[in-house]
Write a structure and sequence with these properties.
Blueprint (H helix, E strand, L loop, with lengths): L2 E8 L15 H5 L7 H17 L4 E4 L7 H6 L6 H11 L1 H7 L11 E4 L9 E5 L6 H4 L2 H11 L6 E4 L16 E4 L8 E6 L20 H10 L7 E5 L2 H4 L10 E4 L2 E5 L6 H14 L5 E5 L6 H7 L5 E4 L5 E6 H5 L1 H13 L3 E7 L2 H4 L9 E7 H6 L8 H14 L12 H17 L7 H4 L1
Helix pairs in contact: 2-16, 4-5, 16-17
Length: about 450
């Protein structure tokens, strides 16, 4: 049976703004309070989706969240009508209003961890929504994320959904941004790799000193248990605390994997050789040939990697078996990174081609190509069971492009978030979107 790795990209929400909310994310903090362009951001994301579809990849769409999150503000003590709640928050606690308007759900690599049916004990595709409890503005996402994923992957015969882990520091879970999977073929059993920043209970693991380590070992282990993964199909590796302190808030900022290949920076992990050996041994037992591409610090510094988002890229396997790397325009603008990539593709060893995309609106807020997509390995039967409304087609691309032009603003500043009209615009847009994507009622305003 044929199998696919489907990329479900997050559709940028109507309140896309630069709130600078993500401590530890250098780009997010450095562009705080600048004027954003929600329309341009959404169109840039859609163009990437369409381009990958045109290249022959199966591409999907994951809907954004309702913002501002009025219910979250009510839980914090603001009251009255929706408009009054927004006005009170703007007057009394503007940072809370900004947090409730975050469009960070566009980075769906953080939406959930996904294990394909070939790896799980019950032979179903498993989803665990990430609690994202390290950041308040992201911790409020998982209830809606769970409903959206449930509407996309609804057939219980093929799909299993788990609630987010307990929202405490010991089980900080950032989803697929710290998870990847290695396999010979997408439909065959593989080895799932969980990268963690710290242990909540074991003091043998060092922790970063400046920025928080968002993913815990205990959260990764819990997800593996929930998904019914075998011990010989799982590898845990610790992120280098020093690179977390350099702005590598997620593992997908310093490494990316696909198929049998891991593309990573020399300073990405602790105990790298031991970790690579375990990946090679476990994948080898499954008939795979694990291979790694290490980028030396002498050629590309951690600072250059963070600025360019070289590793926050999409590593894709084409129909002929060759690999393609999707990178942001910032990689071409960085002389050292671009020189390295030219040499990498010229060698023709593993990664044959690099394609560049303009994702400036997302990049300025701290997310690149890899942040924008959630990977789901599916066989033909499972793909047929996915809600067809969320699979990208040429007509859907045209419809979503028109929808963005109709509903999105060209400019958004922090002061605009206090306008109650923005909430009405957002709800009108999302109500129409659920009909376009055939999701049903997934947003609080549609349910309550």
């Amino acid at each position: 049976m044929k199998s696919y790795e489907v990329n479900f990209d997050g559709l940028v929400g109507p309140t896309h703004n630069y709130g600078g909310l993500s401590y530890g994310n250098v780009a997010s903090q450095s562009n705080s309070q600048q004027s954003s362009n929600p329309k341009e951001a959404a169109l840039q994301g859609l163009q990437k989706m369409k381009a990958l579809m045109d290249m022959g990849f199966v591409q999907g769409v994951l809907a954004p969240q309702e913002r501002p999150d009025v219910a979250a503000l009510r839980n914090l003590g603001f009251s009255g009508s929706d408009a009054q709640v927004i006005q009170q928050a703007a007057q009394q606690a503007m940072p809370l209003l900004v947090a409730s308007c975050s469009a960070s759900s566009m980075w769906v690599a953080n939406a959930a961890t996904v294990s394909p049916s070939a790896d799980t004990a019950d032979g179903r595709v498993h989803f665990t929504a990430a609690n994202l409890n390290c950041k308040y503005h992201r911790s409020i996402e998982h209830p809606t994320t769970s409903r959206v994923l449930g509407a996309m992957f609804a057939d219980p015969q093929h799909f299993a959904h788990h609630a987010a882990l307990p929202a405490v520091a010991q089980f900080g879970d950032e989803g697929a941004a710290n998870h990847t999977r290695f396999c010979r073929e997408y439909g065959e059993a593989g080895v799932e790799f969980f990268a963690f920043g710290r242990s909540a209970f074991d003091t043998r693991y060092p922790a970063p000193q400046k920025y928080p380590a968002r993913q815990t070992l205990e959260a990764s282990q819990a997800v593996a248990r929930l998904h019914g993964l075998k011990d010989d199909g799982v590898v845990y590796g610790q992120q280098n605390p020093a690179v977390i302190d350099a702005g590598v808030f997620h593992n997908d900022v310093i490494a990316v994997g696909n198929g049998e290949v891991l593309f990573y920076h020399e300073d990405a992990f602790l105990n790298t050789e031991q970790m690579l050996g375990e990946l090679q041994a476990k994948l080898g037992k499954l008939g795979g040939n694990f291979q790694s591409v290490c980028v030396p610090r002498a050629l590309v510094s951690v600072e250059d990697a963070v600025r360019s988002y070289l590793f926050n890229s999409q590593l894709l396997t084409r129909a002929d078996g060759s690999m393609l790397l999707i990178v942001p325009e910032e990689c071409r603008a960085n002389e050292r990174v671009w020189h390295y990539l030219q040499g990498l593709t010229a060698s023709g060893v593993l990664i044959r081609e690099v394609k560049v995309f303009d994702l400036k609106q997302s990049m300025q807020n701290g997310g690149g190509p890899a942040c924008l997509r959630l990977r789901v390995a599916l066989n033909e039967t499972e793909l047929a069971a996915v809600n067809p409304g969320v699979i990208m087609t040429a007509p859907l691309y045209d419809t979503l492009t028109q929808w963005v032009h109709k509903h999105y603003r060209d400019s958004l500043r922090e002061s605009d978030l206090a306008d109650p009209q923005l909430l009405l615009e957002c709800r009108t847009a999302l109500d129409e979107l659920t009909q376009i994507l055939k999701l049903g009622a997934v947003y609080p305003f549609q349910i309550n």
